[in-house]
From TrEMBL:
PANTHER family named among the record's database cross-references: OS12G0638800 PROTEIN
Domain RsdA/BaiN/AoA(So)-like Rossmann fold-like: 5-391
Signal peptide positions (record): none
Species assigned in the record: Rheinheimera aquimaris
Domain of life the protein comes from: Bacteria
UniProt keywords, alphabetically: FAD, Flavoprotein
Domain RsdA/BaiN/AoA(So)-like insert per the UniProt entry, residue ranges: 188-338
Cofactor(s) this protein requires: FAD
InterPro entries (alphabetical): BaiN-like (IPR004792), BaiN-like_dom_sf (IPR023166), FAD/NAD-bd_sf (IPR036188), RsdA/BaiN/AoA(So)-like_dom (IPR055178), RsdA/BaiN/AoA(So)_Rossmann (IPR057661)
Record protein name field: NAD(P)/FAD-dependent oxidoreductase
Length: 393
């Protein structure tokens, strides 16, 4: 049986960061992963360019039952620390929007950087490893696979959530947490497209591909970004963001013209072009296909602008500034970028990420009940929580 100081389960962002930091401390580290290659989520993220952090990342950008838990890790390993690592490896990057940083070339640059750091820290990697059992006795963990058993003092779980099962996601981390007496909070797909009710699908699937800047609101939270109509439902950054706050059965309220007051716009258009039809005027603000669809379903009634009273203008404005969709559900883990819920932070030390009542057992990254917004925040939590655990495991 092989002996290690640390075994990390999961060769993703959090697991590799933790392994590197532990290795730098002289710990003998083995990383186990069930896939054929490391960093699978890194490689596919950001359209293959990896949105590796966000310049504005802070605790307010994360959802958790304990909103204070993430503060310690995020303050001790910041986005600027990770940016410094990227710069050290001469990886070219750019800000796309809203502080989102992407590789100029390829997400593979980030994976190669982590592999180089891991090699320099003498970290050992073992891929295509399916763990069949984990046990604890006499201060040692035994991790068994069909090939062999390994022992370690510190066991770090960085196995991710349930999102993107085609990349190898499993419930392993949650099951292991429960095996050792930690509570797992309810899980659901997040940063995920919302799906149509059958009646809405019949109406809106015809305008699949139409996109526009909106604000999307659910449960008192509002996100300004683009929204995309699809065959299956609503997508785009604004919808992915709001999906983390939306609950089944609830509405999503969309402001289709967040930058322009429609009442004022119509009054100005009426003065300038009284003979013009409403649909022609609205098509200056909104995608033409969307305007035609809204008229088709009588959400607004087409008429010459000169026939509009101020009350009618306000009614049209109210409809378009707060259009209510009632999603049927989400597309689920198949397309979700992250999993909300996970290992209850009450059972973990925010300073070390170690389980409070199970010595030497650590949980980091997405498996923990900390979920970031869209835009590089979840990677920053992975780097930060992995870095912190790597100082202690």
């Amino acid at each position: 049986m092989q002996q290690w100081d640390v075994i990390v389960v999961g060769a993703g962002a959090a697991g590799l960061m933790c392994a590197i930091e532990a290795g730098k401390r002289g710990r003998r580290v083995l990383v186990l992963d069930n896939g054929k290659r490391v960093g699978r989520k890194i490689l596919m993220s950001g359209g293959g360019r990896c949105n590796f952090t966000n310049m504005y990342a802070g605790p307010e950008n994360f959802l958790s039952q304990n909103k204070h838990f993430c503060k310690s890790a995020l303050s001790r390993y910041t986005q600027w620390d990770f940016i410094a690592l990227v710069q050290k490896h001469s990886i070219a990057y750019h800000e796309k929007s809203l502080g989102q940083l992407f590789c100029d070339d390829s997400a593979k640059d980030i994976v190669d950087m982590l592999l180089k750091e891991a090699k320099d820290a003498n970290v050992q990697l073992a891929l295509q490893q399916n763990i069949t059992a984990v046990s604890f006795a006499d201060g040692q963990y035994t991790v068994s696979t069909p090939e062999l058993s390994q022992q370690c003092q510190s066991l770090v779980i960085a196995s991710g959530g349930l999102s993107l099962p085609n990349l190898g996601a499993t419930a392993f981390g949650f099951q292991l947490a429960e095996q050792f007496g930690l509570k797992v909070l309810p899980l659901r797909a997040a940063l995920v497209p919302l799906t149509w009710q059958p009646a809405d699908k019949a109406v809106f699937e015809e305008i699949s591909g139409v996109s526009l800047p909106v604000t999307a609101e659910a449960n008192g939270t509002v996100f300004p970004e683009d929204m995309l109509f699809t065959h299956r439902g609503l997508s785009g950054p604004a919808i992915l963001q709001i999906s983390s706050y939306w609950q089944p059965g609830e509405d999503v309220t969309v402001n289709m013209s967040p930058q322009t007051d429609i009442t004022e716009f119509l009054a100005a258009q009426q003065q300038a072009h009284p003979e013009q039809e409403l649909k022609t005027a609205l098509a200056k603000l909104l995608p033409k296909r969307l305007v035609e669809k809204l008229i088709d379903i009588k959400a607004v009634n087409n008429q010459p602008l000169k026939t509009l009273h101020s009350k009618s203008m306000r009614q049209i404005a109210d409809t378009l500034h707060s259009y209510v969709f009632k999603p049927n559900g989400t597309e689920g883990y198949r397309t979700a970028e992250v999993t909300i819920g996970g290992v209850d932070t009450d059972g973990l030390s925010s300073k070390t990420m170690e389980a409070k009542h199970q010595p030497g057992l650590y949980f980091i990254g997405e498996v923990v009940d900390v979920t970031g917004w869209l835009g590089g925040y979840n990677f920053q939590w992975a780097w930060a929580s992995g870095w912190v655990a790597g100082q202690y495991c």
